[in-house]
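Task: sequence design from structure.
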């Protein structure tokens, strides 16, 4: 079902965009149907200057003097039932997420970022986490990251996910802490997912699995990649997009409001896919409630 987000027609959530002061943020909005409401929150004068000549649709602009102020307004819109998700505009990820985390985190839960990527060379969409939020995740952080990935997966798919906790080597090495994390996570979540500590080639390549004689159910067929840290996740994600011709969509989950977080350089198609992912996610949550 996840593969449907990369198909036409694109789904559009009702969104509020924080600091949409660049054409790369505003141009995709021309594709949003007139029936879908959205709000642009930030310095009104600058937003109107950016809209001149390129924006074809009437939209609601709410003036905000700071990112904190814009965040507060967007959360109020969500609480009033007027939007489904909040999107990062032309602002750094840290500046966007910091006030969000203070306001929308759930008790005893950590938010994390998921990036769903469809590659020409792989037989199904794959989820990479976390390339945005957790710089050097501890085992405790990874527990939340894995749980968020499982919860997200279960909204869309009927079978348990196959999760690869990635390291430079497969199996367990006492000198490589990420492999120890993988071994612990595989035991902790064995009732809700199939998890193995694997290298990237073993996670995604059936031929590597056969060459190395592995019997892992995850190897060559992984649904989710848990990365050792943010640097590795961000580099892998961008390699898949820019060098392996992948299509991707990103979302922060685990809080009470879904957040659409894309790189400031993400083009129109990537932003539209992220809209589609956010709307599909919201729809599935509504089905549960």
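Answer:
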């Amino acid at each position: 079902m996840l593969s449907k987000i990369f198909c036409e027609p694109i789904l559009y959530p009702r969104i509020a965009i924080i600091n949409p002061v660049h054409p790369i943020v505003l141009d995709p909005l021309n594709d949003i149907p007139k029936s879908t409401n959205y709000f642009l929150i930030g310095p009104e004068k600058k937003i109107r200057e950016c809209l001149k000549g390129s924006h074809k649709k009437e939209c609601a602009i709410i003036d905000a003097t700071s990112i904190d102020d814009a965040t507060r307004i967007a959360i109020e819109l969500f609480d009033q039932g007027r939007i489904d998700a909040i999107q990062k505009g032309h602002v750094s990820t840290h500046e966007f997420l910091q006030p969000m985390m203070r306001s929308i985190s759930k008790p005893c839960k950590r938010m994390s970022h998921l990036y769903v990527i469809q590659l020409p060379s792989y037989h199904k969409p794959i989820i990479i986490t976390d390339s945005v939020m957790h710089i050097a995740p501890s085992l405790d952080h990874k527990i939340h990251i894995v749980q968020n990935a499982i919860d997200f997966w279960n909204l869309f798919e009927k079978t348990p996910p196959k999760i690869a906790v990635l390291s430079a080597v497969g199996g367990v090495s006492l000198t490589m802490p990420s492999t120890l994390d993988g071994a612990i996570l595989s035991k902790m979540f064995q009732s809700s997912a199939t998890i193995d500590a694997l290298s990237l080639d073993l996670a995604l390549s059936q031929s590597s699995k056969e060459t190395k004689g592995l019997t892992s159910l995850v190897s060559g067929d992984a649904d989710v990649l848990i990365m050792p840290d943010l640097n590795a996740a961000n580099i892998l994600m961008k390699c898949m997009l820019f060098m392996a011709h992948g299509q991707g969509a990103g979302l922060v989950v685990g809080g009470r409001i879904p957040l659409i977080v894309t790189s400031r350089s993400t083009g129109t198609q990537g932003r539209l896919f992220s809209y589609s992912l956010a709307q599909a996610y919201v729809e599935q949550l509504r089905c549960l409630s």
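The chain has two domains: 7-105+257-267, 109-255.
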